[in-house]
Structure formats: structure tokens, C-alpha cells
Design brief:
Length: 490
């Protein structure tokens, strides 16, 4: 564990940028706290430093730079679509605090740091920030060379070079509980689906599987680390009634998962709503896990990476399972009273028959609650490396999984017509089976304005023209058809 100091040593400002591109997809339904920054802040506090966290989706950076006067600024970059916005944020910080040291970290930064190796930035963290950022703060505070800090891509006069890697994967229990108090001013702004406020909890990190569209396992070398049962119980007991468990693969170790469920029951921890993410074949092998966990929340949703409606499609993304598992896992989850959500990948190389195959599969097996993302070669994946010549020159804002990065087989217009029709068959279509009035009956009167704004923003996904408008654009085309989702008052 970290030594706790009695005096403040260094002011550190941690920033979560506004991604600037939530015009498509389910982003409006999932606006969660910056948990990674909260863990880093906890580690900094334990070292005696003074961190502040600012969520730039709700606040402006310049006023917070003036307020905190930081010597170290950390900017998160979780997704490739944020690269340009991170650089814009770094430039703004540099204007307000010319002498501050600027480091960028987060999943996308670590998986593929190249786009961030620019003059605006001093270093990029390429591993777990809970160890690297406190070590960097110590070095700056003591005037030691930053080259001695591990897991960095560092800017020098002769170019960018790497410092030594971390000696080992970070022990997740070495990090104190997340410093959630630093974002409580924005708590009512964090929501998932119909629930707010929502808390984000991590019980494990990594994934041992090898889906070719995913950069998680490639970044962590197929490792899988877990927090101790006691630490997870303390964390879940400390947060509110609506919880999204952010693990990429929940229930991966069944015996540990059963022990965790027992420990939560013994502690009397029960939530209003829980959401977890897992694999279909895991649920098929161990339905007892779902039986053990179901009593821990009044409403409990499980999210599956469904990906495809055929075995051929699943093999194409190296899912290492079949559609039988999707069908069986959904039936198992529903039998225990879980809400089943998920996601399918839509390939730009599809013909019309593949779209109809997906529509029939969704209708037959009741997957109308699923989302649909366009197959996107994310930086840091084998798929990205293989398609690099085709992807050259595409702007980063299109890596949101709702733009096409090469010309579709059917041509842009027909592809987007069918893609929009796919979304129209989902429950998000307020002109479909689930009307706007049906949504309103599921929320409190106080939350009606919020859910109305969110649903209005999603309706543009059902219009092919909205996608076509941006298909050939090199910069984001900002749409003003619908009101922006201003945060509700607390």
C-alpha cells in the first residue's frame, strides 16, 4: 500500500475530455463517471499530492486551471475517437498553464499512443496510471528526471522514446478505493439507460479471450486481474443504489464470483439496479452464477457481446463460440429474471441478405434491446494493422463505431438505409412498438425531461441521411436537429 503523507506536495489536475462525438450510438444512454481518474486521484492522495478531477463534458478547462494552478495535468483518452479532442484540450491547458507538465493516459492512449506524440503533450502513459502518474508527480515535485518514471512515452528534443516498463502488472488491491468524492458535484449527471444517478465499479481488469475487433486483451496480453473479495464488497457497499460494473468480463472465475456473491449477501449489500457485461458461453456453462447473483438487485441487466447472427459471422471476429450460446444464454438469463441487452456488429462488406439474416435472428429470439455498431478496426488491434492501408487518412472522429471507414459493398446510400432500418427495429424507435409514452411510464416524473432528451438524440440513428451527411466529411458535421442533453439540476 502507499504511504500516506500529512502535507500537500503537488497540485495535479485530472481531466476527462468531452469526446465531441455522441451524435450516433448509445452514448446519450451511458454517461458514467471517470473511474480511472478516480483511482489515479486516490493513489495521488495517498502519496500526499492534491488532485482535482474535472469532467469537461460539463465544465470548462480554463477556469479549473486557474483555480487549481497545477504543476501536473493528466488528460484521459479512453477511445480513439477522442485523439483530436485530447490534443485540443492539451493546447488549451498549455495556453492557461505554460509550465505545467501534460501527460495523457487511458485505454486508447496506451493501446496506440502515436497520434498523441505531438508538441502539445509531454508524455503518454502506456500502462496502468495508478502506478505511473503518482511516480511522475513524485519526480516533478522532487525535480528528478522524468526518464526514470516507468511506462511512459516521453518527449525529448530528439524525439519520442519509451521509458522502462512497469516491473509487473499492477496489483489492483494496491490501489485505494476510488476518490469518488472528487466528482460528487456531478453525480446526478451520471446515468445509464433509465437509471440515475449511477455509480461505476470495477472488480476486475482485462480479458483472456481474443476477439479480433477488441483491443483490451491485446493491451493487457490476455491477462485478467481481480480485486480481492473484501475490497469489492467495501466498494459496492460504499456506492449508491444504481451500479454499472465496468469489468470487460464479469463472472470469469466462477468460484470467486460465487464467493463474492455470498460475501455481499452476508454484508447486506443489495442494489436497486445492477448492470454487468459477460460472455454468452460462460453463462451457458455456469447458470448457477446467475442464480446466485440475481437476489443482489431489484433490477439486474446483463450485457452480452452478441456480435453476429451466424456461426460464420462469429468465426470472422474470432469470438470462439457459436450462435447457439447467444440463444441459450439469453434464455437462461431471462429465466432468472435478468434483463438481456447486447450488441451486434454490422460489417460494411455485408450484402442485403446479411442484414435480413440479422433482422430475422433478432425478431425470432427477442433481441430488440440490442444495439448495433459498425465493425471498426480500433487502433491497437490486429484488425487495425491488417487494414492500415485502407484506413489511411480517415479522421479519428469516425472511429466511434457508427461511421464507415471504407466504401461499403452496397455503396454508402444503400448500406446506411439498411443500417438505419436495423436501428428502427430496436426498442429505441419511438415510432415503433415502444412509444415515447411507454418510456415515460418507466421513469419518475422528475426524470421525464432527461429521458425525453436522451431518446430524441437517438432518433437520428434511424435516418440514413444523418449518416450520409458525415460519410465523406473530414471534420465532424455538428447536427442541431435535437436539443443537446444539458445536465439536469441536482
Amino acid at each position: 500500500m502507499y504511504r500516506v503523507y500529512n502535507s500537500v506536495r503537488l497540485n495535479v489536475l485530472l481531466l476527462r475530455p468531452d469526446p465531441g462525438n455522441e451524435r450516433f450510438g448509445l452514448g446519450p444512454f451511458f454517461r458514467v463517471e471517470p473511474l480511472g481518474l478516480e483511482y489515479i486521484a486516490a493513489a495521488l492522495l495517498a502519496r500526499g499530492h492534491s488532485p482535482a478531477i474535472v469532467d469537461l463534458r460539463f465544465r470548462r478547462v480554463s477556469s479549473w486551471v486557474k483555480r487549481t494552478r497545477p504543476r501536473l495535468v493528466g488528460i484521459s483518452c479512453m477511445h480513439a475517437l477522442e485523439y483530436d479532442r485530447v490534443l485540443e484540450t492539451a493546447r488549451e491547458v498549455r495556453r492557461a498553464a505554460p509550465d505545467a507538465f501534460i501527460v495523457v493516459g487511458g485505454h486508447a492512449a496506451a493501446a496506440f499512443p502515436g497520434p498523441l506524440e505531438k508538441s502539445e503533450i509531454d508524455a503518454v502513459c502506456v500502462d496502468d496510471g495508478e502506478e505511473t502518474v503518482p511516480a511522475l508527480a513524485d519526480a516533478i515535485e522532487k525535480g528528478r528526471p522524468v526518464s526514470g518514471v516507468p511506462a511512459l512515452r516521453r518527449k525529448f528534443s530528439e524525439g519520442w522514446t519509451s521509458t522502462a516498463p512497469l516491473a509487473d502488472r499492477t496489483d489492483l488491491d494496491a490501489v485505494p478505493l476510488a476518490a469518488r468524492s472528487l466528482v460528487e458535484r456531478d453525480r446526478r449527471r451520471y446515468h445509464c439507460l433509465l437509471f440515475r444517478p449511477v455509480w461505476l465499479v470495477e472488480t476486475a481488469r482485462g480479458c483472456p479471450y481474443r476477439c479480433n475487433f477488441c483491443s483490451v486483451w491485446q493491451l493487457y496480453g490476455r491477462s485478467f486481474r481481480e480485486r480481492s473479495i473484501g475490497a469489492v464488497v467495501d466498494d459496492l457497499a460504499s456506492v449508491g443504489e444504481n451500479v454499472f460494473i465496468a469489468d470487460d468480463l464479469f463472472w470469469n472465475h466462477p468460484d470467486r464470483s460465487l464467493a463474492l456473491a455470498r460475501a455481499l449477501k452476508e454484508r447486506g449489500v443489495k442494489k436497486r439496479w445492477l448492470l454487468v457485461q459477460t460472455r454468452t458461453d460462460l453463462v451457458c456453462r455456469r447458470p448457477d452464477l446467475l442464480e446466485a447473483w440475481r437476489p443482489l438487485a431489484k433490477d439486474f441487466d446483463v450485457f452480452f457481446g452478441l456480435e453476429a447472427a451466424s456461426d460464420e459471422g462469429l468465426a470472422g471476429v474470432v469470438k470462439d463460440t457459436g450462435v447457439w450460446a447467444s440463444i441459450e444464454a439469453a434464455n437462461i438469463a431471462r429465466s432468472f429474471g435478468y434483463g438481456v441487452t447486447g450488441n451486434f456488429l454490422v460489417d460494411p462488406d455485408w450484402d442485403e441478405a446479411r442484414f435480413r439474416e440479422l433482422w430475422d435472428f433478432v425478431a425470432e429470439h427477442g433481441f430488440q434491446r440490442a444495439g448495433y455498431t459498425i465493425l471498426t478496426p480500433l487502433p491497437g488491434t490486429e484488425l487495425f494493422q491488417r487494414l492500415a492501408p485502407v484506413l489511411e487518412g480517415q479522421p479519428w472522429f469516425k472511429y466511434d463505431m457508427h461511421h464507415v471507414l471504407w466504401e461499403p459493398r452496397l455503396g454508402p446510400r444503400r448500406f446506411f438505409e439498411l443500417y438505419a432500418e436495423t436501428w428502427r427495429r430496436s426498442i429505441l424507435n419511438t415510432r415503433g412498438e415502444k412509444k415515447l409514452s411507454d418510456w415515460m411510464r418507466q421513469v419518475s416524473v422528475a426524470d421525464v425531461p432527461y429521458i425525453t432528451r436522451v431518446l430524441l438524440r437517438t432518433q437520428r440513428m434511424m435516418r440514413a441521411e444523418a449518416y450520409l451527411k458525415e460519410h465523406h466529411a473530414s471534420v465532424p458535421v455538428i447536427a442541431h436537429e435535437y436539443p443537446s442533453e444539458a445536465a439536469p439540476a441536482s
